[in-house]
Amino acid sequence: AHKPTIRSILISQASYVKHKSNHDYIDLLRSLRDDTNAHTIQPVDAYLNTIADATKRINKIHLAKTSYTLQRLKMQHYSQSNKAGKALATLLWKRQAQSKI
Questions:
Q1: How far apart are CA 53 and CA 56, in angstroms?
Q2: Fewest Cβ atoms nearer than 10 Å: which of 3, 18, 44, 77?
Q3: Burial (CB count <10 Å: 0-12, 13-18, 19+), residue 35
Q4: Using CA atoms, how far apart are residues 48 and 39, in angstroms rounded to an integer?
Q5: Tens digit of pLDDT for each residue in 60-90?
Q6: Both ends of the chain: CA-CA distance in Å?
Q7: What is the pTM of this model?
Q8: Rg (alpha carbons) of the chain, rounded to whole number
Q9: Using CA atoms, how far apart are residues 5 and 52, in angstroms rounded to an integer?
Q10: Are 58 and 84 within 8 A, CB to CB?
Q11: What is residue 72's three-state secondary structure?
Q12: Is 82 left (phi over 0), alpha (psi -120 to 50) or beta?
């Protein structure tokens, strides 16, 4: 009974973190939209700075999501396709060919 309890606690914490990050992402998109609209009405450098900052943060979030997805995809490929040994053998073959020169 201990293992399911810990699993449920971890799942609830992970869902809380995901919900919070999604909420922060939506708030960031809203602030970007509002600042962009305000900048089109009245061009001020302060709006440009906040727009650039929000864009950087959005790009960082997208990069983190993409790298996580890529990591899971690689892990799934190596675990399910059973070709991990072939990939390692190819790397070793290339390194052996370079070291023989």
A1: 5
A2: 3
A3: buried
A4: 7
A5: 999 999 998 998 888 777 666 656 567 777 7
A6: 60
A7: 0.66
A8: 23
A9: 44
A10: no
A11: helix
A12: left
